[in-house]
Amino acid sequence: MDPLTTEPLGDSEEEHIEEFDCSADVAGGTSSEHNSPKSSNRDCSPYASVIDMGDNVYRREEHYLGDNGDMSVHSNTKPIRFPGRVAGFRLSDGHKKSVQMQFEGRKFKSSAKSYLKKEKQPDVTAELTRCKDEDSNYLEFSDFGLQSLPTGIFKDLPHVETLFLNGNKLTGLPAGQLTGLPNLRRLLLQQNAIVCAGLLPDLAKLTSLEVLDLRHNRLEGDLPSCIYGLRGLKQLILSYNKIGVLCDDIKNLQRLTILIVNRNSIRQSIPNTIGQLACLTKLDLSYNHIQTLPASLGQCTQLTDLYLHYNQLTHLPESIGNLTNLNRLMLKYNRLVEIPESLAKCTRLDEFNVENNQLSTLPAHLLDSMSSVRNVTFSRNFFSVFPPGTCEQYTHVMSLNMDHNRITEIPLDVLSHLGQVTRLNLRDNEIADLHAEDLRHWDNLVELDLGSNHLCGLPDELEALKSLELFRLSYNQLKRLPSTLGKLQRLRMLDLESNQLESLPSTLGELVNLQDLNVVCNRLTTFPPSIGNLRELKVLKAGENDLTELPPEIATCGHSE
C-alpha cells in the first residue's frame, strides 16, 4: 500500500462493480448498487506523530475520524530512547510539529450504521395510494421487510413501469400477482431470498419487461425456465447467486444488451447458443469456475465489455479476435497458457490485463497492434523475457505492470519508448542492472517499483527521472546510492528497506518534497546532516540498522514553514 494514501476499510479483495442503466423515467429511486468501501479519515493535525527507531518508540496523541463522524483520541507515550551517544535526544518540543516516524494507524468501524439508511415505515397501502393518486410510473417497496406480497396488491396499475422490491425477504412471486402490471419494464428484486421455485411461469407474461435484477438471492442450479421466456429483456443481472448452468434457451433473449452472471457457480461451458445474442454489449462471467468458452462467442460482435476474470480458463477461442469492438477484456486470475494471435484484431482495447495466469510469452507484435491500450498488466506469470515486439509497443501505454515474473534483464531499447508511461512496476523479478540509456526515456515516470530484484547499484543518470514521485527499491542488494538521487525534486516517497546501505548521500537533503523515507534493515550508522532540510518529511522508518548517533539537524525534519 502506498504510505501516502489512506487504506480503505473492508475486504482487501477488489469487488467488481456491475454498472447498468435501468433508471430512465424513474423518480425517487435507483436500481444500481455500488459497493463503496468505507474510508478511514485521518486527522492531519500536528498531534498525530510517531517516532520509531526500531523498538524504541515515542508516540504523541493520534486523532482519527471514525466512520460515524466521532473524533477518537488515543494517547500512548513512552520516553524516547536512542542507542549509545544519542540517549536522551529530544526530537521536538511539545509545541512544535513533530516528524512522524513509523506511523501505525488503527482502523475504526462504526457499529452505528442506521444513520446511513433512510428511515421508512413499511406502509404498503400508503405507497399504493400515492402511486394511484399521482398516476406514478413507479412503485417503491424497497426495504419494507416484506416476506410475501398481499393478494391483489398490483391490481389495475397499467401505468406502472418500474417496481422496486429490493431489500426485502421475499422467497418468490406468487402466481397471478403481476398480471395487473401489463406495462412493467423494470423489476428490481435484488437482495431478497428468492429461490428458483419461487419464480413461476407467470413471470414470462411480463412481455414489456426490459430489466430484471436478481442479484443477491438464492437461485441455485439451472436458471428458471420462465426467465428464458422474457423475450423483450434487455438487461439481466444475476450476480451473487449459485447458478450452475445457463442452458441453450438463452438464445431466446435476442434483445439482451447486458448479461451479468458474475459470482455464481457455473462450471460447464457457456452454451453455444450465446452466439445468437447479437445485441449483447456487456457480458460478465467473472468469479465462476468456467474452463472453456464456445467458439460461437465470437459472433457477439457488438460486445464492448467482456469480463472473464477469476475463472479456470486454459485457452481462449480463436474467434475472440472477431470481437473488434471490445474496449475492455478482463482475463486475470485464470490458467491461460497462451493468448490467440487473433486478439491482435481487437485494436480498440484500452486495458489488457492477464495477471496471474501461466503465460511465458505473447504472440509477436500483439501490443504493437493495440494502439488504444493504456493499461497493461502481465503481473504474476512466467515471463522470463519481455513479450516480443518493437520498441514502440508501449508508446501509448500509461501504466505497465510486469511484477512477480522471472525477468532477468531489461534488453536495451525494449523500454526506451515509454513516452506516456507514468507507472512502471517491475517488482519481484530477477533484474540485476538498469541501463542508463533507458533511464533517459523514463522522464514521465511518476511511480517506479523495482523492489525485490537483484540490483547492486543504480546508474548516475538517475537524475533523468525528473517526474518521479514514488520510488520503491526495497529488498535489493544496494550498497550505495548515486549523488544524483538529490535531483529527483518531486520525490515524495523513497523505499530502501532491506538493502546493504552503510550510508546515505549528502544530497538526500535536496529532496525537498520527500514525505516518506524507509531505510529499515540496512547497515546505517547515522544520517547525513542534510536530512534536516527535509521539511516535508512525515514518516521516517529506520529500525534494524546500526545507528549510534543522529545529527542534531534531524530535529528540524518535518518543520515546514
TrEMBL record:
It comes from the Eukaryota. Residues 29-43 have a biased composition (Polar residues). Keywords: Leucine-rich repeat, Repeat. GO terms for cellular component: cytoplasm. PROSITE patterns: LRR. Residues 248-445 form the Disease resistance R13L4/SHOC-2-like LRR domain. InterPro entries: Leu-rich_rpt, Leu-rich_rpt_typical-subtyp, LRR_dom_sf, LRR_domain-containing, LRR_R13L4/SHOC2-like. Residues 1-46 are annotated as: Disordered. PANTHER family: PTHR48051, RAS SUPPRESSOR PROTEIN 1. This is Leucine-rich repeat protein. It comes from Hydatigena taeniaeformis.
